[in-house]
């Protein structure tokens, strides 16, 4: 049985058999993107209500090379991402949880620290969050913010410095700014062997992405395995 943090695996030969059907440019881009993926930083969204906001957050995560996005819905049903994030969702691992405590407990067991976004004074600025350990970046509901159940688990309370009259950014803007800052600093400060996905996990991604490119991956794989010269 899969743990909620795990993702389903595709056949180990999927990339080798299916990727030759793609254009050389498409294959090269998929390999390049997989090579730059990270699970050192992951994004967590709690009870985000607007599908457009969810979609925009997923798009930012994908654009910055973040592979894992966790949706924690303690009080509402899981909403579908809008068309803004459909293309991004295709390339991400999205994990769903309904308990803040269980999620945080499991995340800490995996060596992550939690950095939660809180507007206003009294928090550390975004660019002061330490990047010496894996991080989960946590954002709350558009109106109510983060549930109080997060407080015992949060390692860093941060805010994004602002110099205008408005008091906060839209959640999707906050996510984009935060992920940009953290992944830039991590890529500069954290050794690639710690920050990037291990080679084996990159290959699993490519296997899964190759299957997603096919209308009927199982049938196509069976045909290719049975082709002359295959064993």
Q: Can you walk through the features of this model?
A:
- It contains 9 helices and 7 strands; from the N terminus they run ααβαβαβαββββαααα.
- It is elongated and about 70 Å long.
- With 231 residues, the protein is α/β, with parallel strands linked by helices.
- It starts with 13 loop residues before the first helix and ends in a 6-residue tail after the last helix.
- It has a 7-stranded parallel β-sheet with strand order 3-2-1-6-4-7-5, sandwiched between helices.
- It folds into 2 domains: 59 residues, no CATH class; 150 residues, Alpha/beta knot.
- Strand 1, helix 3 and strand 2 form a beta-alpha-beta unit.
- Helix 2 crosses helix 8.
Protein traits:
elongated; 231 residues; 2 domains; 9 helices; Alpha/beta knot; single chain; seven-stranded parallel sheet; alpha/beta
């Amino acid at each position: 049985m899969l743990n909620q943090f795990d993702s389903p695996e595709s056949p180990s030969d999927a990339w080798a058999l299916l990727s030759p059907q793609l254009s050389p440019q498409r294959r090269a881009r998929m390999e390049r993107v997989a090579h730059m993926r990270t699970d050192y930083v992951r994004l967590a969204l709690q009870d985000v209500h607007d599908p457009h906001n969810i979609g925009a957050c997923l798009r930012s995560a994908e654009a910055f090379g973040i592979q894992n996005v966790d949706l924690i819905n303690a009080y509402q049903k899981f909403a579908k991402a809008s068309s803004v994030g459909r293309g991004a969702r295709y390339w991400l691992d999205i994990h769903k949880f309904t308990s803040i405590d269980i999620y945080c407990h499991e995340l800490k067991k995996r060596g992550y620290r939690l950095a939660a976004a809180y507007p206003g004074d009294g928090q550390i600025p975004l660019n002061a969050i330490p990047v010496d350990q894996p991080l989960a970046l946590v954002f709350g509901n558009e109106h109510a913010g983060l549930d109080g159940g997060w407080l015992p688990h949060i390692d860093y309370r941060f805010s994004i410095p602002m110099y205008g009259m408005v008091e906060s950014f839209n959640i999707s803007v906050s996510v984009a700014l935060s992920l940009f800052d953290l992944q830039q600093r991590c890529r500069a400060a954290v050794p690639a062997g710690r920050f990037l996905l291990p080679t084996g996990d990159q290959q699993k991604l490519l296997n899964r992405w190759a299957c997603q490119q096919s209308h009927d991956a199982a049938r196509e794989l069976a045909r290719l395995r049975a082709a002359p010269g295959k064993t």
